[in-house]
């Protein structure tokens, strides 16, 4: 019967194998692959097919007892022959190894340590009869070694004269075999000191309403809206950031209502032609990206699109985002993503309404020597409440300036009818000329003054001899540093204001103070014999006078006065033998914050309490009525006046 | 006859209250007290404001680690950590490792004396730089009780590609200010190395960047520093890179603390007493001259006269 079943089973298996083989051969054209098979797939299959067995020692059954007996450890002698590390064999130089016969021991060069070094004491009496001492934390009372004593006078003052301890020492008993609960007890006690700690999974909110700091679910929409692939770290909206190196890693998680300042990281490609679109493209941050939970995904709308010149950094406006593509002719990856500035709008209920991304693109090429293409990308996120985008603007403190925050600045503006004035506040603070990517000066290359930080910026102006002469003999509308700031601080628009307090309101011009500009009078002169241009405005010197106001423990700092001074120098063309080779001249700007010399903090007392008790405000209700919002009590002077006037009239 | 005992007789000086002699005696003793205080205080160190004691800290490796191996350039780094959330987020750069940690208590006092950590990274490629952060539970038990979670940072870089790095050093306590005497300080008993925050879920770039971790850590008052001048970089090519790190726990770590009231008074009293006795001795000579030679008027009564009066 068994044999029949076996034959039937074999027939069925062979038939099934033949059917499968035929079915496979009939499909001559394989179906289109949805994705490429990773190499690990074949790796896994190789694991299942490769035979492997762990090596083991042979068993000598002649030494195996019919009834095994437990080999008890004698606690008082356990560990006294630590060099015996071979079972049924002699260990070299282990004199206490019972498996070493005399012939083997005759070959020993020395006796290896038989255990850890025994604790020792310095005996102060050389000829003492003591042989045992009681050492703290020691189990080996009987094996304390005598060592040579110090023969000094002081060392002989304390002696071990006699020891009569009845104990052999302190020993750990061999406990009974442990059970699972013992392991659980030990594991719980040492849970903080183990590899492989687990992290509890925190379930996210199932709704589309967020609280401050809540991470935002995100996904990619690939192939239309049909396929959604989780994005970022743990399917959460995460921006690239430098983590392990300057390389971009998608770990900058974005929390609800948590602004992310501009964070720059780098992307690399060794094969630019293949990686141009995948590595430097913008799709994953714009078109593919969906933010929010699946029931309420929010797409990313493209806002302002600009192109940054890869050499100068100059920005030009683009109507729409151009596709990222590799140009074989120039070997350039064109329109790689350089900057993304997200603006996420939310409503009062805690839901995301819209996501807008301002983009900057640029071109990148591979390094000629290494073949490595590098592109720096910058990401930022700002949050605005729906409908308040134009009103919200950051403060640099409240009310005093905080270190590291921009100095608020702007220019005065008038309403169309000229009846009102306000400050047109710069979004990034007070500008200062700075260098572009090539280290040269340019109209769009500005940095911003940061409160409390004495700073220096510099940039280069390359000029040949002829250009220097022409520049020196020309009559520019304003000095060069002024031109680099688009005319700011210039003679014609000397209306730059700086906020006195960091919480200044741009609609109130009295909260702002005009920047005093000095040194606009000099003119350049060209000395052809020395190839020197005298009196070149080569920089700006910003000075801010800072005052302290308020509690000595928490002084608030205001800008009491601000001044910008033009700095002049002589530009000399150094190498007259090469007049057509450009020489770089330096524009250097400095910022200095000066503490105002002011009186020391003084005590301000509380106003004395009134001698007379306050009267309720409705004491003369029909005659004096206070407004609903005022908590005002009737004053005694008013009471006297109220009583005296009628009395005088009556008299 | 042999003298078996001696008994001193005194000449006693009496004066009325608020007399010159009385005022002199009172003022001189008050002046001695004031002079003593001025002297000991002006000679510095009267009030003990800072002290130290030594103890071996109880250090245990919490098995939290962050390892970064860097290649020739940015983007060619691999890492390994004990934090599953981070490993999952950066899975494409996660290294395969074999890590071993051993704590050795050589003197059997219950505290580890040496902590050995070794990590073998497979498939590392050419390694030019190693950054390793290890976290420990650090306890001081003595006059001050303090418990914190601290870090050891190991960094080594070489222009030569390496196959092994051996470092051997001590985990030393660093204090910016001394500890307060009367508290059990557990302010920093929170993880200094915790990518993802306390829950392990809120992962962001800042909690992973070495510079951010170290900046936050060094803002603490008490920190530990792995001090080693004996790093050995073994150059070599290969797919494996191994780090051997031996962290020695100093048996006598010096801990600075602000002494308590009784300790301050004890040291102050010793100094005060030493100077006061000296000045008192000098004063006794001044008093001797003053009263012995009748500079101030007193009525003198001798014990000898008194005993004569009571002679039986």
TrEMBL record, chain A:
Q: Which residues form the Tectonic-1-3 N-terminal domain?
A: 75-175
Q: Which InterPro entries match?
A: TCTN1-3, TCTN1-3_dom, TCTN1-3_N
Protein name according to UniProt: Uncharacterized protein
Q: Enumerate the UniProt keywords alphabetically.
A: Cilium biogenesis/degradation, Glycoprotein, Signal
Native organism: Klebsormidium nitens
Annotated signal sequence is 1-22
Asked if Signal is a keyword of the record, the answer is yes
Q: Tectonic-1-3 domain location, by residue?
A: 397-588
One matching Pfam family: DUF1619_N
What are the recorded Gene Ontology BP terms? cell projection organization
Classification of source organism:
Eukaryota, Viridiplantae, Streptophyta, Klebsormidiophyceae, Klebsormidiales
Q: Of which family is this protein a member?
A: Belongs to the tectonic family.
Automatic annotation (TrEMBL), chain B:
> Which Pfam families does this entry report, sorted A to Z?
TM231
UniProt KW Amino-acid biosynthesis keyword = no
Q: Where is it mainly found?
A: membrane
What's the protein's topology in the membrane? Multi-pass membrane protein
What InterPro entries does this protein map onto?
A: TMEM231
Q: Which parts pass through the membrane?
A: 18-40, 267-286
- Keyword vocabulary terms for this entry: Cell membrane, Cell projection, Cilium, Glycoprotein, Membrane, Transmembrane, Transmembrane helix
The keyword Calcium appears for this protein: no
Q: Give GO BP annotations, semicolon-separated.
A: cilium assembly; regulation of protein localization
Q: Which GO terms describe its cellular component?
A: ciliary membrane; ciliary transition zone
Compartment annotation = Cell projection, Cilium membrane
Q: What family is it from? A: Belongs to the TMEM231 family.
* Function description: Transmembrane component of the tectonic-like complex, a complex localized at the transition zone of primary cilia and acting as a barrier that prevents diffusion of transmembrane proteins between the cilia and plasma membranes. Required for ciliogenesis and sonic hedgehog/SHH signaling.
Which protein, by its recorded name, is this? Transmembrane protein 231
UniProt source species: Klebsormidium nitens
């Amino acid at each position: 019967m068994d044999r029949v079943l076996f034959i039937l089973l074999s027939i069925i298996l062979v038939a099934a194998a033949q059917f499968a083989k035929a079915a496979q051969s009939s499909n001559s054209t394989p179906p289109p692959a949805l994705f490429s098979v990773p190499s690990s797939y074949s790796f896994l299959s190789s694991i299942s097919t490769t035979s492997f067995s762990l090596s083991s020692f042979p068993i000598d059954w002649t030494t195996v007892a019919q009834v095994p007996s437990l080999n008890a450890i004698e606690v008082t002698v356990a560990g006294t022959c630590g060099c015996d590390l071979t079972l049924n064999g002699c260990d070299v130089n282990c004199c206490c190894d019972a498996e070493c016969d005399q012939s083997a021991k005759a070959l020993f060069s020395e006796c290896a340590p038989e255990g850890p070094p025994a604790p020792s004491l310095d005996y102060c009496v050389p000829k003492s009869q003591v042989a045992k001492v009681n050492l703290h934390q020691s189990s080996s009372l009987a094996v304390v070694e005598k060592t040579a004593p110090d023969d000094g006078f002081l060392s002989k003052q304390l002696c071990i004269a006699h020891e009569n301890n009845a104990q052999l020492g302190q020993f750990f008993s061999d406990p009974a075999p442990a059970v699972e609960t013992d392991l659980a007890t030990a594991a719980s006690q040492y849970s903080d000191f183990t590899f492989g700690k687990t992290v509890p999974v925190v379930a996210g909110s199932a709704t589309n309403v967020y609280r401050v700091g809540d991470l935002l679910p995100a996904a990619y929409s690939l192939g239309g809206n049909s396929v959604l692939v989780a994005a970022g770290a743990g399917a959460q909206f995460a921006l690239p950031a430098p983590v392990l190196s300057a390389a971009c890693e998608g770990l900058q998680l974005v929390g609800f209502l948590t602004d992310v300042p501009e964070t720059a990281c780098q992307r690399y490609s060794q094969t630019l032609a293949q990686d141009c679109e995948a590595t430097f493209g913008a799709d994953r941050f714009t078109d593919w990206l969906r933010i929010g939970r699946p029931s309420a995904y929010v797409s990313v709308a493209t806002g302002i699109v600009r192109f940054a010149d890869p050499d100068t950094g100059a920005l030009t406006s683009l109507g729409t985002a151009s596709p990222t593509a590799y140009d074989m002719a120039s070997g350039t990856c064109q329109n790689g993503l350089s900057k993304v500035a997200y603006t996420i709008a939310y409503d009062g209920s805690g839901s995301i309404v819209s996501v807008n991304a301002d983009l900057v693109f640029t071109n990148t090429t591979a390094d000629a020597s290494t073949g490595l293409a590098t592109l720096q990308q910058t990401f930022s996120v700002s949050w605005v409440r729906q409908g308040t985008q134009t009103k919200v603007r950051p403060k640099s403190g409240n009310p005093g300036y905080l270190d590291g925050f921009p100095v608020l600045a702007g220019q005065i503006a008038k309403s169309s009818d000229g009846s009102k004035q306000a400050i047109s506040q710069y979004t990034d603070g007070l500008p200062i000329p700075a260098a572009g990517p090539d280290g040269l000066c340019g109209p769009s290359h500005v940095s911003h003054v940061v409160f409390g930080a004495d700073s220096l910026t510099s940039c280069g102006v390359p000029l040949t001899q002829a250009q220097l002469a022409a520049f020196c003999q020309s009559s520019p509308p304003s000095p060069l540093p002024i031109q680099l700031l688009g005319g700011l601080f210039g003679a014609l628009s000397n209306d730059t204001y700086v906020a006195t307090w960091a919480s200044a309101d741009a609609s109130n011009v009295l909260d702002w103070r005009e920047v005093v500009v000095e040194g606009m009078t000099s003119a350049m002169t060209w000395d052809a014999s020395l190839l020197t241009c005298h009196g070149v405005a080569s920089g700006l010197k910003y000075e801010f006078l800072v005052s302290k106001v308020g509690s000595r423990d928490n002084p608030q700092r205001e800008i009491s006065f601000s001044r910008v001074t033009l700095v002049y120098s002589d530009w000399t063309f150094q190498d007259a033998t090469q007049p057509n080779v450009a020489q770089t001249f330096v524009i250097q700007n400095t910022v200095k914050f000066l503490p105002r010399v002011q009186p020391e903090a003084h005590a301000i007392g509380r106003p004395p309490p009134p001698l007379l008790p306050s009267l309720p405000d409705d004491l003369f209700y029909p005659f004096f009525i206070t407004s609903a919002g005022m908590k005002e009590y009737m004053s005694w002077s008013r009471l006297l006046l109220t009583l005296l006037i009628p009395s005088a009239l009556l008299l | 006859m042999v003298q078996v005992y001696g008994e001193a007789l005194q000449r006693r000086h009496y004066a009325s209250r608020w007399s010159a002699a009385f005022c002199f005696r009172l003022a001189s003793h008050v002046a001695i007290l004031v002079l003593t205080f001025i002297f000991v205080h002006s000679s510095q160190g009267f009030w003990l404001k800072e002290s130290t004691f030594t103890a071996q800290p109880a250090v245990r490796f919490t098995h939290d680690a962050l390892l970064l191996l860097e290649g020739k350039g940015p983007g060619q780094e691999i890492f390994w950590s004990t934090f599953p959330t981070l490993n999952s987020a950066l899975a494409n750069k996660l290294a395969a490792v074999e890590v071993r940690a051993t704590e050795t208590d050589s003197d059997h006092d219950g505290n580890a004396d040496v902590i050995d950590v070794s990590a073998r990274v497979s498939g590392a490629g050419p390694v030019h730089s190693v950054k390793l952060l290890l976290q420990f539970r650090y306890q001081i038990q003595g006059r001050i009780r303090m418990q914190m979670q601290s870090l050891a940072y190991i960094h080594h870089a070489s222009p030569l590609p390496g196959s092994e790095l051996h470092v051997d050093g001590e985990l030393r306590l660093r204090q910016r200010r001394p500890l307060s005497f009367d508290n059990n300080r557990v302010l920093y008993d929170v993880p200094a190395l915790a990518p993802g925050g306390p829950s392990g879920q809120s992962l962001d770039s800042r909690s992973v960047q070495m510079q951010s971790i170290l900046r936050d850590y060094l803002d603490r008052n008490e920190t530990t520093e792995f001090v080693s001048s004996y790093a050995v970089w073994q150059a070599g090519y290969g797919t494996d890179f191994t780090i051997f790190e031996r962290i020695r726990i100093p048996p006598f770590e010096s801990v600075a603390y602000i002494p308590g009231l009784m300790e301050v008074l004890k040291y102050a009293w010793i100094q005060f007493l030493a100077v006061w006795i000296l000045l008192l001795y000098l004063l006794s000579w001044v008093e001797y001259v003053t009263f012995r030679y009748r500079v101030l008027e007193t009525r003198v009564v001798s014990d000898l006269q008194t005993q004569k009066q009571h002679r039986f």
